[in-house]
Amino acid sequence: MKHRSRITRLMVFAVLVSACAQAAPPPTAAPTDTPSGPQTLTVMTHDSFAASEDVIAAFEQANNAKITFLKSGDTGAALNKAILSKDAPLADVFYGVDNTFLSRALDAGIFEPYASPALSRIPADLRLDAENRALPVDYGDVCLNYDKAYFEDKRLPPPQTLEDLVKPEYKSLLVVENPATSSPGLAFLLATVAHFGPDQFIDYWEQLAANEVKVVDGWETAYYTDFSGSSGKGPRPLVVSYASSPPAEMIFAPDPKPDEAPTASVVGPGACFRQIEFVGILGGTKSRALAEKWVDFMLSEPFQADMPTQMFVFPAVQGVKLPDEFVQWAQTPEAPAAVSPADIALHREAWIEAWTDAVLK
After folding, report:
1. What b/e readout covers 66-98, taking b as 16+ CB neighbours within 10 angstroms?
2. Domain spanning 39-139+275-325 has what CATH number?
């Protein structure tokens, strides 16, 4: 009887255990799709990219992200790297391709389309890709800059047009950058192509050469070595630079600040070329959602307002407040020269070669 009673008690115990096991909720599985730390986004840029640390930190904090910037040379070199690594992308996003290289980037198919909501605030003339593979972020006008003091002292009016530069009174006064080695040099070459036409611009450059234009490899040499403006120490009062250079002169001027910018720009019809810089999501990114958020951020008020004093460019988004120095001293050309990205892609090398034969022979 005792044995039987023991069996009965064991059977009851087993039933109770089974019932409890059925009633207990299953253990919760540990989430597998939530990152344990910040998600990393790699942004490829040209070497001139700059942004305030607090602006970048705000994006990182808001999105639990870590942004890594991959600086890859000048615009052409960075684009080459992006194209060559297309099948195994080095980054998630590429910023810095401009309208002089845009067609090459689009033809190579390195970008995925993305219609950011911010596009509605960007003027149509800056939106050069109808498929929204490359979205405009900023623009800057490459223009002739002149040293005000030189022309005042000589009682010589500064040039107002490209045609003025070949006049005898402006002989030996101009320094330009080589379009084969310099982005502003190429932009100025394109301005002459647009203004004089693809069949006549070489005649103009031959006249400039006869008027003793000086050619150097890059902007820094032209501006800081050959130009006579306050930042330069050279003998030439005319240089190919940017419409944002006069504001930069005021921003970086030591105290006490001058009452006015020591330089100004020549912004007559066709005298400037507008460079537009774009951002795009690289094909093959494994962080598409975060890449979209980054593109939206680059087109947001905080980032756009930061750019003028970081990279001395103008925001692509309308309505962004500019620094006082830009409002007061930057001159905006009403009719900048324009050459389509497709024409640039098709003729760039031939135009540079023709220029080289005419000017450096």
Report:
1. ebebbebebbbebbbbbeebeeebebbbbbbbb
2. 3.40.190.10
